[in-house]
Sequence to fold (213 residues):
Amino acid sequence: MAERTQERETARTEVEIEASPEEIWEALVTEEGRETWIQEPDREVYVEVVQAPSRLVWWWGSEDEPATRVEFEIVSVPAGARVVVTESEPAFPTLLLAMRFARVLA
Amino acid sequence: MSDELGQVFAALSDPTRRAMIEALLREGTTSVPRLTAELPITRQAVAKHLATLDHAGLVERAPAGGREVRYRLRDGALVSASTWLAETESAWEQRLARLKGAVERKR
Fold:
């Protein structure tokens, strides 16, 4: 089960998975992996930080929604690994603008 | 998501402004002199932060009670932000449940 806690302007959710960080990493960084669990084809993902297999940051958004920043932390636990996801609104409008340009240029 | 929500989160991203919101939650109303006495920043900085909170729709001037201008939280000021958080967390719970299923099935 996913557990939830709440921090100010960041939505935070976590889950424990019976698999190694490396196995989970595959499902996060490859497009085929993401298709198995995101199932929102209109959202485009722009990866910003890659630190295999423990930390991944991407920006994503769709036509009708501004971009948000998604950060994954993967930590080993005895039964497998814990994945902590935080999603936040960009604090700086320039980042939002940059995302829109990236989409136009892509 | 609207740009107004972006302004709310930008306003809340600063610890001094969060301290101001917390003071208002605690005390109901406040003023520039009062916040200046409570916080380690200048009167000008307090006024500037209050203007940012006002612009984001989080605070408003309270009806005048005396010579001093007082501020209060705007009704429903934090509703859009808390709704976004709840909806976003609920969407992530579903995605992470699918991620867990997909990764564990693959083993």
